[in-house]
Structures are given as C-alpha cells and as structure tokens.
What we know:
Number of strands: 21
Shape: globular
CATH superfamily of the largest domain: Aldolase class I
Strand content: 15-25%
CATH architecture of the largest domain: Alpha-Beta Barrel
Oligomer: single chain
Amino acid sequence: xxxxxxxxxxxxxxxxxxxxxxxxxxVMYGADAVYLAGTMFGMRAGANNFTHDQxxxxxxxxxxxxxxxxxxxxxxxxxxxxxxxxxxxxRAADAGVDAFIIADIGVxxxxxxxxxxxxxxISTQAGVANYATANEFYNMGAARVVLARELCFDxxxxxxxxxxxxxxxxxxVHGSMCxxxxxxxxxxxYMTGRDANRGDCAQPCRWKYYLTEEHREGQKFEIFEDSxxxxxxxxxxxxxxxxxxxxxxxxxxFKIEGRAKSAYYTAAVTNAYRxxxxxxxxxxxxxxxxxxxxxxxxxxxxxxEYSAGFYLGGEPGQVYDNGGYVREYxxxxxxxxxxxxxxxxxxxxxxxxxxxxxxxxxxxxxxVIEAAEMYDGDGNSIESAPHATMTVxxxxxxxxxxxxxxxxxxx
Length: 411
C-alpha cells in the first residue's frame, strides 16, 4: 500500500440526482459532483430523471456552485435506439454536462464523435475488474473508469499502480448492491419482462422464494437458509469507516448509489460522507475514523443491513429474513425560513406538539429541538401538523438554519 502522504489530492464526493429536487439537495449538502440521467439511456428508469429543459437547469445549478454534472448513458441500447443517440448526445453536451457515463463501446464512439469535448467515464456496467481493461479504455479515450463492485482493496491498489495517473478511478462506497456481477442481470427480464440492462429492474432478487415439486401442484416448500428465504437480497454497502484505505488504494471519486432514492436520502448520505471526508483531510492518518454522530446519520436513512461489500475480500452476504429496509426516522418537514423567533417548516409527515425534532443542517452536526408550541401559516395555534406540505411555525431562537434543511423525527 502506498504511503498516505502521497495520496492527499482530495477525492471527489459523487452523489445521485434523480431529479431537480435531489440535485439541489446533493449540492446543498456537499457533493463535489452529481450524476443524473435524461429520459433515455439511463440505468434508473424508475427515477424521475431530467427532461432537456430540466437538464439545462440542473447543470446550471450545479455549475453555479462549483459542482460537476455527469450524464448517465449506460444502458445497453438495441438497434432501434441507435438513431436516437446522436441528438441525445449533442443536446446533453449543449446543456453543459461534464461527462457521459457509458457502458457500451458503440455508444462511447458516438459520444466521442458527437460531443468530442465531453469526457467519457466507463460505467460499472462495463465490469472493469483489472488493469488491462482499464488501460484499454484509457487508450480508447476514457478519462475515468467506474470499477466493478466486486474488487477488494488490494486489487484496486494494483489496478491504480498499473494504469496512467491521469486515468481517474471511481468506485461505489455506499448504497444498494446487486446480487449479480456489476448489475449484469437477466432475472428481472426473464421473470417480469422488465430489462435491468435497460434501466427497468423490478428487483426480483429482493423477493421471497419457495420450492415446488413438479407433481405437487400448488404445494410450496419453504427454503430455509438461516432464518429466511430472501436468498438473493444483498446487504447495502457502507464504507464510511474505511476512508483512509479508500484513499490509499488510489480511488479518485467516492460514489453514492441511489438515484431512485428520496431527496432526504440524498441529502443525509451526502452530508455524512462530506463531513467524514473533510474530517479525514484535517487528520489524514490511517487510524482516522469519523465522529460517532456521522456514523449515526447513516442509520437515520432507510437502509438494509450494512456491509463493506467486496472491499475486505469475500462475499458481503444477504439479508435472508426480509426484503425491506430498516427505517428508524422519517422526515417531519423542510425548513422554509428561520428568523423572527420562529422556525418555519413545510410539513412532510404528521408531527405534534411535544415531539422532539432532529434538525439536519448541511455540513454540520445535527441537533434536536422540541416542538413545545406550533402555529399554522395564519398564526393559529395547532396541536399537530396532519396536512401534506402545510406551513408550520415553531418558536425557535437558536443558530440560523438554512432554507432547505431537513427536520426529522424518530419513528
């Protein structure tokens, strides 16, 4: 492993942006770059994604804050889609995107032809797992490779040592994992007709399964593995406690998975990693660990059981007993204003007088307040806030809280 002092060029924090709201959250809470998709050729068809006008707006919002915007173009297109690519690529370039994230060699060559000034990043869908492949993509003009998720620290370090220094290396550090190799899966297509390789995965790997015998129609047999039958339900990745090793092995960009996740998820996870990374660069030692409150932040978002993925070697394992998420907190509201002795919120979930609320300002430690009194937008005293997006005012005289900050409550 290389000496830590030689790897102090700051890593990039790359956050998901499923729509304009989530892009704004990523920018506000500390992302160095965001990745997003248009209405075609992106691997998250279930996200809202960006029309062309929204893309222009989103890229401007990012650039105005010094944040880069990368456009996913990483599906595996079929013949009938190829003719749509030139216009799609040119319009994205005109919108100002900083890079295309691409899995297909033909798409890569088209991007180089129709948007020669836009960088090409090779998607994790391409399965870059060795330095020979990384070098070939570099020779073809790629500025960055997004590594296969199946690599351990030592393999990444060797890949970094045997590739040109100006080839950037991006790797996932947080979020959902796929039971198949780097997302190359046909299960959804086979079972539901929804093609995972074209951004439309139905996630059958999260389902519960039984065994049947061909002559016993309708008779189901439980499949027991430890305590359940969700035998393909991968754990989520969480690498926030391993930042020194991620930096040491030469990763350029830390990527958070989750374009289909909520705006709150984007904000909270970005916020945690932003503070953890900043803390590391204040104390860049192999023994660095984030403060306890930062680790706790990642337990305040919906998540499956966490693991270190493949980074430590071996399989990360599955969550066998259920296919759902751990949810301990939910959003009470979003800050609209802070001043004049009141904190004004736009409600997201019902909360009531006497509840303790957990405030999450960007790039700083969260803190709690009590809703001892509550008023509606007309100044009337209320006991609860039951209506979606209603205005709620709570007496508050503490430190200013930026507009757009999330306020949470324990489930």
